[in-house]
Structures are given as structure tokens and as C-alpha cells.
Write a structure and sequence with these properties.
The complex is a heterodimer. By secondary structure, chain A is mostly helical. Chain A contains 13 helices and four strands. Chain A is globular, with a radius of gyration of 22 Å. Chain B is an alpha/beta fold. Chain B is 41% helix and 19% strand. In chain B, the strands form four sheets. In chain B, strands 1, 2, 3, 4, 7, 8 and 9 form a seven-stranded mixed beta sheet that branches. Classes of the chains: A mainly alpha, B alpha/beta. The A-B interface holds A 39, 68-69, 72, 75-76, 79-80, 83, 130-131, 190, 193-194, 197-200, 202, 205, 209, 218, 220, 292-295, 297-299, 303-304, 307, 334-335, 338-341, 343-344, 346-347 and B 1-2, 40-42, 44-45, 81, 83-84, 189, 213, 215-218, 220-227, 229-230, 233, 246, 250-251, 254-255, 258, 260, 280-281, 285-286, 288-289.
């Protein structure tokens, strides 16, 4: 297929996808190199070099010792991509809902938490698998089953919350649904607290400890799986919003609800669809969270939700690509501080970057004037 | 949760109101020992055995000493957990309620040093005897930190030794018994976790070991895997975690395993020695198979004369094995009961005089106690003379295959 900037819908969106892919690869490579040289710098400082000497070494050292740090940087980059993917999946729910009804859905983090719990219920409870499963067919069945189990339930729960709680307040002053969302968040947390208890719950780590040796690094297959699964879903969402009738209805409703209603778009149905998709993506994030971190907890949604919301704001709330971008940027920042041994500063760094971005671009990195959301 | 807390408040108010009426001015012969521990999440796994130990001690004493009837009803048990983990502010609020109730002549607790730091100013000002079965932070009893939280004569004692002993004992064990020369340290930034890993680090270096790195990660950390991947690159031979299960213990171990550090010893303080693999929310329960190379310490004797008898009595009473600081909960209560007995002998005439007499008797540095854990005295700061730290390893076959801590050895710093 030739890539031309024509009026044909398919080739222009293909060109766009290609452009985004190239940007993404360049960004990942830049992160890899920055982290690599930062690790060299930190290593030199730890070995007792002066700051000046360490900086010189960070810029020039490409011997065996320097290359050892490359392996570590590679591993950390994959770590960053997988946590970034989780943040991005949750951030999509925040950004889509904001895009369409201008509501900051504070309960969304807790929707993610419930998704994680349901995956535990399916894999550990219903199927009874608690240890690593090396049979690929069974593993596919378990993970696929967990997704098919939790995605519809969580998606419909999100739709139900919209129908019962947010819809009656749709034309109320904007503070009313906002506070209601906080209330829903508390309700969901307390439901989980009552049912599952207040401690960590073990999530079955069924994904075996498979590793790919690459450039001296041991790259976990699970992390690559998480990244690819999330990326595929994000691309599918992009295509859905850009190419389908329902996607067009979502964009139209986001731009002007009254006008699109006059054109025959069912606003209630479209908004419900947005909540359904947002909830299902959060459920996917919950499933991969359990696989990766091996625990779930009733207040999991608070921290993850806060990070994902930050990601959505950073990328430009209301913008789907922006949410994905923001999720990965936050994953990178957290990973950078952890890699260099400053884990306790990660939140400080995240919010500092957010503040700086908002100072210069108050609508976020990709945020535009309110007409172009979703 | 909200309702539960409301219930506690209502119960406390009812108690205060109900108790004040008939007894004001006189001396109440039916008194209670308050228990103040966290009862949510992973902290609950550590607190339940202590509460059981307290009640067992009261039962063994026949429920009365020196003419006073002693009880520990559920209304006397306070929970300092908030949102699934211990919370200093909640602990301080509880202590305010406890000191306001004249039925209480003493309090056993808390579990966590951070909570104790918030409570001691309140219990000290009220002159209420407080015995902790588990606090090990050195600053609670010694130095400028201890002075800063006391305005009156000392009221606080503890039956476990402090982290200036517990941290170094782990360091000595790693170097001399496990024969590991380097360690990666990660702490939870809290009142307990940070200082104990500092004292661990100092001893490890003093014994010629290498500390490849000392990280701090608060309990809100989302991604421990990145941190452990960075640690893996430094090739440590062992890991030391300063903190408790509720602030990341098992999560860090799982992350270490993912990052390829699952085959080196993972050593933690008493904060991860909180029950066996069958105990809900305990370190071993959450870590499961990943705990295979785990070690933990307890800041008290792991074995003592009469340990078998104590374990048997505990099992008979509660139907489960005694774990963690159950024996220390018992020991604290023995101290309190003994203090009540000696206070009663001074013939106090009011509740206030009785409370002060109990405080003075309990903190008297000249008294030698014959406790279940051994013969101990308390110094003027409230620290025990027993400087024993016991070391535990993971035994996957114990507790019907669920795994449990197995007593390895104990180190007595007093006979070094």
C-alpha cells in the first residue's frame, strides 16, 4: 500500500498510524538512551567520580562497562512500557468520559480496581489456578477467560453507574456530578473492602517466568505481552472512534450534544457506549495488573486512578492519543526515578512535570480548544 | 468501616458516660485493661495473636488480682487502623478516649512504633501505664526523641528489645551464618522501617559487609519491579527489608522475584513475622512460594523455659498455633497484672490514685519480673533488660503445607 496524503479515508488514517508508530519508536529509543547514559552517570558517581568527570563519562563511555548499563536500561524501558500501558488504559476512561460529558469521573480508578478483583475471582477462584501455567493453550484460555469475564461485567457496571447516578445530574451544575463521582468512588471502595477485606489479596501469577535474552538483558515475556495487548486495544479504540458510525456519533456528541441530537444521534446511547468502552479498558488494565504485580487491594484504584487521571490531564484531557501519551510519559518518569534509586521522589517528579507542562500548555500536551475532544 | 468506627465511638461514649456516674470519687474494684492495636489488613495478622496473649494472661491469673476484678471486654479493644493499615492519628484519638475512661488502669499496645510516637505524649500526660508488646523503635525510649514526647514521669515500658539490637542482629546473622557479604536495603520510610534499616546498615558495614544500595520507597509505591530491577543490576547477595507487611513486605518480595532476585536471602524484621501461610494477610500468606528464601527476626526470645507449655495452653484456648508476638502480649499483661497487685497493696482510695499507683509500680526499675519469656527488669526509660533477638527461617512444610516461620537461633546482645 502506498502512503499518500490523499482524501481517501483509509490511506490517510494509515499514514497517521504510521506516523504515530514512528514517533513512538523514536520516543522509546530516546528514553532508552537517556536512561542508559543516566545510569552510567549514576554508576560513576557511586564509584566516587567527581560530578564533572561523571558527566564526561556519561557522554563518552561506550566500553564494556557502559554496555552493561545498556542491558539494564533496556530492561527498565520494558518495565516502563508495561506500567505506562496500564496507566494509559485507565487514562482512556477518564479522558473519554470527560470528552463527552465534561465529567471528571473519580470513580474510574475504582472501576479498574474492581476489574482487577474480578480477574482474581476468575483465575484463582473459578478456575482454581494459583501457580504459573506453562501450557500455552491453557494460559491463553485463562487470560482470555479473565478478560471475557471481567470486561463485560465492569463495562456494564460503569454503564449502570452512569444510568443511575450521572444521567439524572447531567444538566445539574457541574459540581454536583463531580462530588457524586467522589461518592461513587467511596461506595465502590467500601464494597470491595467489605467483600474482600482490608489487606492485600493475592492475585494468581499464572504467567510463567519466561524471559527473552536480548542484548545482555533478560526481557520478561509478560511485560511484552502487556504492552502489545494494551497497544492493540488502544489502536482498536482509535480506529473505532475514527472509522465507525458509533465512533462518529461519539465525536459528534462530544462536539455538540444538542446539535448532534438534532441530527438524529441518540445522546444517551452514545454516552452509555463511552462508559462501556471506558469500563472495559479499565477491566483489561485490572487483569494485567494482577498478572504483573501479584496482588490486589481495595484501595488500589486510588493511587492508580490518580496517576491515570494525571496522565489524562498531562496529555490533554478529552484527547484519546493524549491520554495514551500521558500514560506512557508517567510510566517513564516513575521508572526513571526508580531506576536511578530515587523511588521516593517519583510522585514529586510526576507532578513537577505536570505543573511545567500545564504552565506552558494549559490544555495539556495534545489538548486543543474544547471543540476537538474525543 | 465507617459504621464500625462509629460503633467504637458510640461504645466509648457509652462507657465513659456509664462509668463516670457511679464511680466518680470512689474506687472502682472492677477494672479493665485496654488493648490498642491495628485490626485491619496485614496488621491484623500480627495483632490478633497479641490480643489472644493478653486475654490468656488475664484468664491464667483467674481474672482478678489484689482484690480487683480484671477484664478485657471487646469494648476495651481499640483499633488504630485506617483504610487497611495502622494510622498514628487514629491511634492518638484512641489513646485520648482510653485515658478519659477511669475504668482503665493500663493499656497494652500499640503494635507500630509510628503509632506509639503519637500516643506516648497523651498516655504520659495522663499518667497511664502503657506496655507495648511489639514497639522496637529506639527513639521511643532513648535520647532526645524520647524526651520530646514525655512531659511527666515515665509511663511507657516494652517487653521487646529495641532496633539498636534487632537491626544489627539481622546483619550479624547474614554475615556469619548465611555467609553473604553484600546486601541491598529497602525501607518503607516510616518511623519503624527507616531507623531499623539504618542500624542494620551500620552493623553490616562495621562487620565488613558491602551495602550495594539503600533505597526508600513509601507504601504508596505502585511499581516495585522497576526498583528491584535496578537493585538486580548491583548484584547483591542478600536483601534486607525495613518495614512491615502492610507497608510493602510481600509486594517487594514478589517484585524481587520478578526481577530475578528470588534466589537470594530476603531478610526482614519482626514486621514480616506476622503469622503462618494460613493466616490471612500475613507476609507468608501473600508471598506464598516466593517466600522460599525468607528470614525474619523477632525482638524477643524465640524459645524460653515454658515455651512448649505456653504454646499448648494457647492452642487449647484458641485452636490455632501461637505466632509472632503472642508471648509478648502475654508478658506485657503479666507486668500489668503484677503492677496492679502492688498498687492495690498501697490502698489507693480513688480511681486516679489507683491509676497513678499502677503507673509507678509498673515502671519501677527496681522490680524484677518473672515473665513467661524469662526474668526481666525495666530500666528508667522503660526498656527491657532482655536483649534477645531470635531469627526465623521459612519452613514450607509447616502449618499443613502452608508454610510457617521456623525458629533458627537467638542472639543475646547482653552476653556478647
Amino acid at each position: 500500500m502506498t502512503v499518500t496524503v490523499s482524501t481517501g479515508a483509509s490511506s490517510s488514517s494509515f499514514a497517521r498510524a504510521l506516523r504515530i508508530t514512528v514517533y513512538a519508536i523514536v520516543a522509546i529509543l530516546i528514553y532508552l538512551i537517556v536512561l542508559w547514559r543516566a545510569l552510567v552517570l549514576a554508576g560513576e558517581l557511586r564509584a566516587g567520580s567527581t560530578l564533572l568527570n561523571a558527566i564526561v563519562q556519561a557522554l563518552t563511555r561506550f566500553d564494556a562497562v557502559g554496555n552493561e548499563f545498556l542491558a539494564q536500561a533496556l530492561q527498565q524501558t520494558v518495565n516502563a512500557l508495561s506500567i505506562g500501558a496500564i496507566y494509559a488504559l485507565i487514562a482512556l476512561g477518564y479522558t473519554m468520559v470527560y470528552g463527552i460529558i465534561e465529567l471528571i469521573n473519580f470513580a474510574h480508578g475504582d472501576i479498574f480496581m474492581l476489574g482487577a478483583f474480578l480477574s482474581v475471582v476468575f483465575i484463582g477462584g473459578i478456575m482454581g489456578h494459583n501457580e504459573a501455567v506453562t501450557d500455552i493453550a491453557l494460559l491463553t484460555f485463562l487470560i482470555g477467560g479473565a478478560l471475557l469475564f471481567s470486561m463485560p461485567i465492569i463495562g456494564l457496571l460503569n454503564v449502570g453507574i452512569e444510568r443511575l447516578v450521572y444521567r439524572p445530574l447531567r444538566n445539574a451544575p457541574r459540581l454536583a456530578p463531580l462530588i457524586t463521582a467522589v461518592g461513587v468512588s467511596f461506595i465502590l471502595q467500601n464494597v470491595a473492602l467489605t467483600v474482600a477485606g482490608s489487606g492485600d489479596r493475592r492475585a494468581p501469577q499464572i504467567f510463567p517466568d519466561w524471559k527473552i535474552a536480548f542484548g545482555g538483558a533478560q526481557i520478561s515475556v509478560l511485560l511484552i505481552f502487556i504492552f502489545i495487548l494494551s497497544l492493540a486495544l488502544m489502536l482498536a479504540l482509535q480506529a473505532f472512534v475514527a472509522r465507525t458510525r458509533l465512533g462518529r456519533a461519539m465525536r459528534a456528541t462530544a462536539q455538540d450534544r444538542e446539535a448532534s441530537a438534532l441530527m438524529g444521534v441518540d445522546a444517551n446511547q452514545t454516552i452509555a457506549l463511552t462508559f462501556l468502552i471506558g469500563g472495559m479498558l479499565a477491566a483489561v488494565a485490572g487483569v494485567v495488573w494482577g498478572l504483573r504485580f501479584g496482588y490486589v487491594k481495595f484501595d488500589l484504584g486510588f493511587n492508580s486512578g490518580l496517576k491515570a487521571f494525571t496522565a489524562a490531564v498531562l496529555g490533554g484531557i478529552g484527547n484519546i492519543t493524549g491520554a495514551v501519551l500521558g500514560g506512557f510519559i508517567i510510566g517513564f518518569i516513575e521508572n526513571l526515578s526508580a531506576s536511578l534509586g530515587y523511588a521516593r521522589w517519583s510522585e514529586f517528579l510526576v507532578f513537577m512535570v505536570l505543573t511545567f507542562v500545564l504552565l506552558f500548555r494549559p490544555t495539556g500536551i495534545l489538548g486543543q480548544h474544547s471543540g476537538d475532544r474525543a | 468501616m465507617q459504621f464500625k468506627r462509629l460503633g467504637i465511638v458510640v461504645a466509648a461514649v457509652v462507657l465513659v458516660v456509664g462509668a463516670c456516674g457511679p464511680s466518680s470519687g470512689g474506687l472502682n474494684k472492677s477494672i479493665q485493661i485496654a488493648v490498642e492495636l491495628p485490626f485491619q489488613g496485614s496488621d491484623k495478622a500480627a495483632s490478633d495473636p497479641i490480643l489472644n496473649g493478653v486475654r490468656l494472661a488475664v484468664k491464667d491469673a483467674g481474672g482478678s488480682v489484689g482484690g480487683f476484678t480484671i477484664t478485657v471486654p471487646n469494648s476495651a479493644v481499640y483499633d488504630d487502623a485506617l483504610n487497611g493499615a495502622h494510622d498514628p492519628q487514629t491511634g492518638a484519638n484512641n489513646m485520648t478516649k482510653i485515658v478519659a475512661d477511669p475504668n482503665y488502669v493500663a493499656v497494652v499496645g500499640p503494635l507500630n512504633s509510628g503509632v506509639a510516637k503519637a500516643q506516648i505524649p497523651i498516655s504520659n500526660a495522663a499518667g497511664l501505664l502503657q506496655c507495648s508488646p511489639a514497639n522496637t523503635n529506639t527513639g521511643l525510649t532513648k535520647g532526645a526523641d524520647a524526651k520530646a514526647i514525655r512531659t511527666k514521669a515515665n509511663n511507657y515500658i516494652r517487653v521487646v528489645t529495641n532496633d539498636a539490637i534487632q537491626g544489627p542482629a539481622a546483619a550479624a546473622y547474614i554475615i556469619t551464618v548465611l555467609k553473604k557479604k553484600s546486601v541491598y536495603i529497602i525501607d518503607d520510610t516510616e518511623t519503624f522501617g527507616k531507623p531499623i534499616s539504618d542500624s542494620f546498615e551500620a552493623e553490616f558495614k562495621a562487620r565488613g559487609g558491602t551495602v550495594v544500595k539503600h533505597d526508600s520507597a513509601p507504601k504508596t509505591t505502585q511499581d516495585y519491579v522497576s526498583i528491584m530491577t535496578a537493585a538486580k543490576a548491583l548484584n547483591p547477595e542478600s536483601i534486607y527489608f525495613g518495614g512491615v507487611t502492610a507497608t510493602g513486605g510481600a509486594r517487594i518480595l514478589l517484585a524481587a522475584q520478578q526481577a530475578g532476585l528470588g534466589d537470594i536471602p530476603f531478610v526482614g524484621p519482626d514486621g514480616i513475622n506476622d503469622g503462618n501461610g494460613a493466616t490471612k494477610d500475613s507476609f507468608l500468606n501473600l508471598a506464598a512460594a516466593a517466600a522460599k528464601n525468607s528470614y525474619s527476626t523477632l525482638a524477643g526470645p524465640g524459645t524460653f523455659d515454658g515455651k512448649a507449655a505456653f504454646d499448648a495452653a494457647y492452642k487449647k484456648e484458641y485452636g490455632i498455633d501461637s505466632t509472632g508476638y503472642a508471648g509478648q502480649g502475654y508478658a506485657c499483661t503479666q507486668v500489668v497484672l503484677d503492677a496492679i497487685k502492688r498498687a492495690a497493696a498501697t490502698n489507693p482510695t480513688t480511681n486516679a490514685a489507683m491509676r497513678e499507683a499502677v503507673r509507678a509500680a509498673g515502671t519501677d526499675p527496681s522490680i524484677t519480673y518473672n515473665l513467661n519469656v524469662g526474668t526481666v527488669k525495666f530500666d528508667a526509660d522503660g526498656d527491657t533488660s532482655q536483649l534477645i533477638v531470635s531469627i526465623y527461617s521459612f519452613d514450607p512444610a509447616a502449618a499443613s503445607g502452608k508454610g510457617d516461620w521456623k525458629y533458627e537461633t537467638q542472639v543475646d546482645a547482653a552476653v556478647k
